[in-house]
Specification:
By secondary structure, the protein is mainly alpha-helical. About 40% of the residues lie in helices and about 5% in strands.
């Protein structure tokens, strides 16, 4: 199975910063992120193309869904903003970036494939 996070990329393309001056490391990191966004955009385009071929979905359907998902955080800003949730054990705030609660160590509950991103 193809891993969408590494599609078209080998492990040597990830920048290393241990022996690189700070400015060069920043430029390398930026290039890496731009390349990753380009790859993910290509994969999204391919998936949309497949969906259109296999279903009767239209560009209008896609744009309506994008707008609906964009508004889930209360702002139409073109971003899928992650919100702060509460730990299911201690009920303290839990940042979306963390896989475990920083207070009690309880694992974050995953209710969607996108929660793990």
């Amino acid at each position: 199975m193809i891993n969408p996070y590494t599609f078209g990329m080998d492990s040597s393309s990830r920048p290393t910063t241990s022996s690189t001056p700070s400015g060069a490391a920043d430029a390398s990191d930026l290039r890496y992120l731009e390349d990753r966004v380009d790859r993910l955009s290509l994969i999204c385009m391919a998936m949309w193309s497949l969906l259109q071929d296999k279903t009767k979905l239209t560009e209008e359907d896609l744009m309506e869904r994008v707008k609906m998902l964009d508004l889930m955080d209360g702002k139409e800003d073109g971003k899928a903003t992650k919100t702060v949730s509460k730990c299911s054990r201690c009920e303290r705030p839990m940042n979306a970036r963390h896989k475990k609660c920083i207070y009690c160590g309880h694992a974050k509950l995953i209710s969607s494939a996108f929660d793990a991103l």
